[in-house]
# Entry
Amino acid sequence: MTKVSITELTPGTMLERSADVFGSKTAIVYEHTALTYEEFRQATIRTARALLASGVRPGDRVAYLMPNLPEMLIAHFAVPLIPAVLVAINTRLSGPEIEYILDHSGASILVVDSALHPVVADHLDGRPELREVVVLHDPASGAGPVASHTSFDEFVARGSDEPLPFAVDDEERTISINYTSGTTGRPKGVMYSHRGGYLNAIAELIHSNHVPESVYLWTLPMFHCNGWCTTWAVTAIGGTHICLRAPEPGAIWKAIREHGVTHLNAAPTVLVSMVNHPDAGPLPQRDGNPFVVTTAGAPPSPTIIAQMNELGAKMVHVYGLTETYGPYSICEPQPEWADVPLEERVRLMARQGVAFIGADPIRVVDEDMNDVPRDGETMGEVVMRGNNVMKGYHDDADATERAFRGGWFHSGDLGVWHPDGYIQLRDRSKDIIISGGENISTIEVEQAIVSHDAVLEAAVVAMPHEKWGERPIAYVTLKPGASAEPDEIIVHVRDRLAHFKAPDVVEIVDQLPKTSTGKIQKFVLREPLWANRETRIN
Amino acid sequence: MTKVSITELTPGTMLERSADVFGSKTAIVYEHTALTYEEFRQATIRTARALLASGVRPGDRVAYLMPNLPEMLIAHFAVPLIPAVLVAINTRLSGPEIEYILDHSGASILVVDSALHPVVADHLDGRPELREVVVLHDPASGAGPVASHTSFDEFVARGSDEPLPFAVDDEERTISINYTSGTTGRPKGVMYSHRGGYLNAIAELIHSNHVPESVYLWTLPMFHCNGWCTTWAVTAIGGTHICLRAPEPGAIWKAIREHGVTHLNAAPTVLVSMVNHPDAGPLPQRDGNPFVVTTAGAPPSPTIIAQMNELGAKMVHVYGLTETYGPYSICEPQPEWADVPLEERVRLMARQGVAFIGADPIRVVDEDMNDVPRDGETMGEVVMRGNNVMKGYHDDADATERAFRGGWFHSGDLGVWHPDGYIQLRDRSKDIIISGGENISTIEVEQAIVSHDAVLEAAVVAMPHEKWGERPIAYVTLKPGASAEPDEIIVHVRDRLAHFKAPDVVEIVDQLPKTSTGKIQKFVLREPLWANRETRIN
# Structure
């Protein structure tokens, strides 16, 4: 029987509708080019056809290594259309890290920005499943074209304008794999479904107050959780995407004023760079509606919330993980907060809040999966479930099973539950450092450090940083009789990992604080670093 | 395996979230009572528990015959919670019509407002599956309590506060059955699913610009498509429901000013009564946002759109049928319309438009299911498909198959497709008359007329009516030698059907215009009635 009453949910239908309804409206702006929604659809079909002509088949993985360019946005519709799986790789990773993701995902095609090509140039040969590398040359990058691979123009020329149905055969099919920063040393491939992408995009749309008049600035990298599903959400409502190669504060302010931006998403660290920039000033207000800033990636400090409010921003504070399609919870403002003094209000707003519309209730649980008391004091682990939780880790059933133990996704984040039902993060059980919105696995950095011949043990923790929120600091013990300078260890890490993961400070110590069973007590190292801060960041 | 990544979609989760997040906020206001969201949840659980204690089992039908009271809204969550099926009956139907619906749906319980009890009093005995009748006494109705049945208080006292999970085992399960006006003489039971109710509510929420600050006035009957799924949508966003026993224009204006209403849904006829009422005046604007009026049920005239705009309303014009959960399409405003002269703009706005977010594209097709040209002239039938289309007709596989032929739902509405992709209704192939937002089946009225001994044949068509939009007029031929007065025939119909279905005018004629195959040519009767109208309503 034809399913007259059921259409499988897929973000693809979001582009189809906006192209049907807002065909002549500006969909994407970048530098001196602009695409209408009809052109957006045509570019999507042409790219999808090019992928098919290049031998990509349903379920194959297609990797993109690219900043927030129109082609990256188009890939969010073109790859699922055929229906393949998008792997949008973090552009800040090092060659070996990207190599690992290419191999683990088994990507058959890599599309790479020519300015990023040098990072991976030495890591493209001998990949078992990588059949072709396509290089996009963006003149605005300053980098030249790369002759040794297929150019993006050649690639797209393989396509055609022959329509493809904006539909999927099964809404639980994987739409994308987004790699975590790897809390156990290796990144894990988080699988999103078409259904999950659709429902999360709709929730984003509601909670960030998007309207067809939205002009959305791409400060948030699209490789983070597919831009928190905003790639799909802004397209669904028929808003205008303003692409930006790099979220530098000067470029952000310029774009806001030039394009009449109404919405942006950003980690608190980007907001800090914005408010401290000489170009900072009142944010535009559309027809009396406030400029909407949706923030996540790290708990925003009350200070930055208050500063953004002063510039005219309505702050939407959300929280989630790669495993939850980006945002899962929102600090939903209560009517009575309007009467609360500013200082108290921003403190309330700095909490991680309650589940999104469409998400199952968020919980804070003890080790037996019982709710912790709602006292704002008892710590527990934050767990989630439902349509806003990943399908699982790609090709890692063990890790999936561990993460899903007890029928809930275990975030690894520790928090408390307040009497009003709002949750608040207190610590991260996995000791992840969030630097400029990027996750840094301390374990990964520690492993890089201990690979130095002179090092015995290492413990990396987060230290507060005005610009980046957090930066890694390493406490290192040396092997008996060995010697090494801190700078030498930093260089050693930079040779092995993305530069932003290397610690800013290395302290050589005689011994590390440990529990009786020999486990390093990181909190002993961390506490003095944070104790003197006027306001706790969490 | 536990489905960590999938939660079955159900509107139930919408109430759960708002009770969790906005527990102390006002959810429902009626006369002198107000319920918070936590109280809304508790009342829902208590009612659901009372249904269970009364022997209602999953899948059983529970009928409500009630105006827009808090208990009717609560039923939209309580009945699906256990999970039974809500049958909200049109309060304007006659006893025999309600009797038919009770029998056809096989409702095991009927909950009826004491003021409506007299309509059904003689039709409650001998119903094969109806086990119990519960009568709610609303003092504001002016009617007294009814002692002969279970009182609502007794019924609810059977319940308890023991929690029930706001979840459903299968999102494709039936959540409600909404009866059509019966285009082939008998009403058909349109089955909605939990998934469809959820997705449509979300779409309503987006297109009607609902926000947590929404104060929604219940002018639209909840028995119409579960209030176009707004019962669930306003609850999802955490807005405030203002209940109203009868949508009289004086009461509407009073409620708007008393409660700071921000949103309402209404058929154009209700809007006409509003603008022509002595209390009419500027509509309140929340923080500079326009008052939102979502209209459907009949094509709104450009005149009423312009009049509502003048009072400060943003008009959201939507179109759909009972079979499409209420609204399926929206006349989405285009940016360039802002520069179009008012007269032209309201003409554009009076079209039925494009599919909702979440709905499959709407089509106008010829008899072979091919798209008609987008010329604004070629007529075809409007067809729909996907998550916003009913599961089918309850206990009527034949009618379902006919309605779903070719893999699409056939609306029976005739329309044209404009070059900009917007559809516009031109006629109704089923000859339905829409009077004051209520559908009247001409076939049903004709059958009532011909049941009069003196009548040979009858043809009922719509004539224009300033207040109700359309009213039925009957052309009647008499049996040879028989005689009957028009008034006598009108009384005959009123004895058999809801009074509003009786024709305003009966004309006794010698013969009816017919095709060569003997089919009555209704358009020949209709055209002269509509030809002199300055503006076509469609």
